[in-house]
Amino acid sequence: MSRICKEAEAFLDYDTMHKKIQEIVSLPLSPIESLAASAVSTARSLCAAAIVVLTKGGYTVELVAKYRPSVPILSVVVPEITRTDDFEWSCSESAAHVARRGLIYRGIVPVMATGASARSSNKDSTEETIRSAIEFAKKKGICKTGDSIVALHKIDGSSVVKILYVE
Fold it and tell me: Mind telling me which residue stretches traverse the membrane in this protein (predicted)?
């Protein structure tokens, strides 16, 4: 099955497919969908190795997948951590569900964020989460040193598309 899928995808013209999808999408796009489409266009024009999307509910990464990038989409699911009392923290059950749901979309590689990502609104922890995702991608052979990566995430309430280079 894997061999058949790889063979079929080798014949897809992603540029043409991306243009056709953009032609049939109703305008105006929502701001987040516009960023998702831009991330795919940017990845295509840079020949990026992957697109990294930090998400809590999965909606943004699903929009990125809608535009059919030719590269893998790392869906970094950032769990919402809540404090239950002075000594205990709990992680939302929906984070695992969001990661599993990503498996049904073409091109999405779900990754659960860990460690400092519990404070995902913090700029430093967001950067650490992205670095961790890139390290995961390197280990899985998705990217290598010198490759470009397109990252889509929120920081201080604003959605951001960034170009990063793998070190």
Answer: none
Judge whether 5 and 33 are in contact, CB under 8 Å: no
Distance (Å, whole) CA 64 – CA 66: 5
Please state whether the peptide bond connecting residue 79 to the residue before it is cis, i.e. omega within 30 degrees of 0: no
pLDDT for the residue 2: 80
Closest CA to 73 of 149, 148, 7: 149
Interatomic CA distance for residues 131 and 135, integer angstroms: 6
Q: Which DSSP symbol is given to 163?
A: E
Instruction: Look up the pTM and report it.
Output: 0.82
H-assigned helices in 1-144: 2-10, 14-24, 31-46, 59-66, 94-101, 123-139
- Identity of residue 161: V
Q: What is the mean pLDDT of residues 121-141?
A: 85
**φ, ψ for residue 151 (rounded to 5)?**
-115, 140
Nearest alpha carbon to residue 167 among 134, 127, 125? 134
